[in-house]
Amino acid sequence: MTARATARPVGTVTRGTTNPNRLRRMDRWIAAVHGAELRRAADPVAVDLGYGAAPWTAVELLGRLRAVAPRTRVVGVEIEPARVAAAVPYEREGLTFRHGGFEVPVPGRPQLIRAANVLRQYDEGEVAAVWRRLCARLAPADPATGARGGLLVEGTCDEIGRRHVWVALGPEGPRTVTFATRLASLDRPSDLAERLPKALIHRNVPGEPVHAFLRDFDRAWAAAAPYAAYGARQRWMRAVGDLAVDWPVTDGPARWRQGEVTVRWAALAPRG
């Protein structure tokens, strides 16, 4: 194998579809749950992996993370060279763009890798290997300080960011799954099924945990119908509260009010 072939970015070009504010739900969740890790890191680097045809998501990520961790630097990584060239004029202090793929060509170990709408085009069987590769690039945990290490956030959303589902992974592997939505546009929770990440979207069938979860969520939503008189937020919070009786929900009302719910990965992981 030649040196040139060895240096070739790992992965394939995505469609590149992007819109301003598309990833706002994911960003605000990252800022809330991972802000402390970014603040305590000596060199907090966040990677926007596969940002697409325009650099909006990387620009927005910098602003949202710096609101909670002012020293954070963001590196946008794209496998299509023309997209990198188009993004370079948007570079500023704390924001750079690089050509690359799943090898994540940044020095050291980043505190965050965000890969939104990147794995959608891959086969389900390829996901685990990509996850392992990306998790191996994360900053390691440090038991001496209590640091949990870096975070990989991988998921899928619709074109304008109303519905989004993502998996959060640490250096050790997958931790949680988060469902997030604009509540005013929601008919029932299982509407989010079409935005399940690649690891789960083909598992929304009877006998799989994610199917049972969405079924129970729809039932809790239906039972909470009387709360709709107080608004969709109150109905969602009541439904999630009921759901948490039988499912390992890891967050609380402060996040539920945002139209979110986070569940342990082990409860939704595919069987077989």
From TrEMBL:
Location of the region described as Disordered in the Swiss-Prot/TrEMBL record: 1-20
InterPro entries: SAM-dependent_MTases_sf
Protein known as: Methylase
